[in-house]
């Protein structure tokens, strides 16, 4: 099956810093989504982005499907950005959404 | 707008007991999913239902059964709970008939097996 690797596994930032999170996948995908899991365990939808670039406030994402990766950019980070960030993908012909390994982010005040 | 609703939110079982986790969505979605998340880990797919009347195994199906009761509801049953099934269980759904599309999650059900 498809392998979905995220990097870095852990990240500690000072408030106000910028960061880039990466999601690599081993096969072609037809759906890709980014989630934020907050410290209370809720999974929050950030971007549905099978290809191209999207922006929402301080967050933006880019997927280059032909090169099998996606990037999540966080600018001017805030303590509320802390938590775990996951990407999830499906491959063509399947309904299975498979999750990446996650990046644990801690933003210090 | 309720979205995806899971019950119960918390449950403690003894080894060997059975229980059913319930999930319902009100977004008229076709596909529904059950995931488990162990402490400090990612989400692993247990079972999914691409459409009403169909179910398929995910990455970690052993020890579980599912029922797609109708288009709205997808239940997960543990017939004989084991301590290794202590986890947080998430239900999710997505809309398009061909599968995929944006995935929406419930708030999770925390299960402890003693």
Written overview of the protein:
The complex is a heterodimer of chains A (109) and B (114). Chain A is mainly β and 109 residues long. Chain A has strands at 4-7, 10-14, 19-25, 29-37, 43-48, 52-56, 59-64, 69-74, 83-91, 98-99, 103-108. In chain A, strands 2, 4, 5, 9, 10 and 11 form a six-stranded mixed β-sheet that branches. In chain A, strands 1-3-8-7-6 form a five-stranded antiparallel β-sheet, with no helix packed on it. The model of chain A has no long low-confidence stretch (mean pLDDT 95). Chain B is mainly β. Chain B contains no helices and eleven strands. Chain B has strands at residues 4-7, 10-13, 19-25, 31-37, 43-49, 56-57, 65-68, 74-78, 87-94, 104-105, 109-113. Chain A binds chain B through residues 1, 30-31, 33, 35, 41-43, 45, 48, 86, 88, 90, 94-102, and chain B through 31, 33, 35, 42-45, 48, 50, 56, 58-59, 88, 90, 92, 94, 99-105, 107-108.
Task: Explain the layout of strands and helices.
The complex is a heterodimer of chains A (109) and B (114).
Chain A: E1 4-7, E2 10-14, E3 19-25, E4 29-37, E5 43-48, E6 52-56, E7 59-64, E8 69-74, E9 83-91, E10 98-99, E11 103-108
Chain B: E1 4-7, E2 10-13, E3 19-25, E4 31-37, E5 43-49, E6 56-57, E7 65-68, E8 74-78, E9 87-94, E10 104-105, E11 109-113
Parallel strand pairs in B: 2-11
Antiparallel strand pairs in B: 1-3, 3-8, 4-5, 4-9, 5-6, 7-8, 9-10, 9-11
What are the key terms here?
heterodimer, A: mainly beta, five-stranded antiparallel beta sheet, 11 strands, globular, B: 114 residues, mainly beta
Quick description:
The complex is a heterodimer of chains A (109) and B (114). With 109 residues, chain A is an all-beta fold. Chain A has strands at residues 4-7, 10-14, 19-25, 29-37, 43-48, 52-56, 59-64, 69-74, 83-91, 98-99, 103-108.
User: Which stretches of chain B are low in confidence, meaning pLDDT under 50 for 5 or more residues running?
Assistant: none
Fraction of residues in H or I helices of chain A: under 10%
Shape of chain A: globular
What average pLDDT do the residues of chain A reach?
Answer: 95
Largest protein interface, residues of each chain: A-B, 22 and 25 residues
The major pleated sheet of chain A works out as: 6 strands, mixed
Q: Outline the low-pLDDT stretches of chain A.
A: none
Biggest β-sheet of chain B: count, sense, barrel?
Answer: 7 strands, mixed
What portion of residues of chain B is helical?
under 10%
Determine the N-to-C terminus distance of chain A.
40 Å
Summarize the helix and strand pattern of chain B as letters: EEEEEEEEEEE
């Amino acid at each position: 099956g498809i392998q979905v690797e995220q990097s870095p596994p852990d990240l500690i930032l000072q408030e106000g810093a910028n960061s880039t999170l990466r999601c690599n996948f081993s096969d072609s995908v037809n759906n890709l989504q980014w989630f934020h899991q907050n410290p209370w365990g809720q999974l929050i939808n950030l971007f549905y982005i099978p290809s191209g670039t999207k922006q929402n406030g301080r967050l933006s994402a880019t997927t280059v499907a032909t090169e099998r990766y996606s990037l999540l950019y966080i600018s001017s980070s805030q303590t509320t950005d802390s938590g775990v960030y996951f990407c999830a993908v499906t491959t063509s012909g399947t309904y299975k959404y498979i999750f990446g390994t996650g990046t644990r982010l801690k933003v210090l005040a | 707008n309720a979205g995806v609703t899971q019950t119960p939110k918390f449950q403690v079982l003894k080894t060997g007991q059975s229980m059913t986790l319930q999930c319902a969505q009100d977004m008229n979605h076709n596909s529904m999913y059950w995931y488990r998340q162990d402490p400090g880990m990612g989400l692993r797919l247990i079972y999914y239902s691409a459409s009403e009347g169909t179910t398929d195994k995910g990455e970690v199906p052993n020890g579980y059964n599912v029922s797609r009761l109708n288009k709205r509801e997808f239940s997960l049953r543990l017939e004989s709970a084991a301590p290794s099934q202590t986890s947080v269980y998430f239900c999710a759904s997505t809309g398009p008939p061909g599968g995929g599309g944006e995935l929406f999650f419930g708030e999770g059900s925390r299960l402890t097996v003693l």
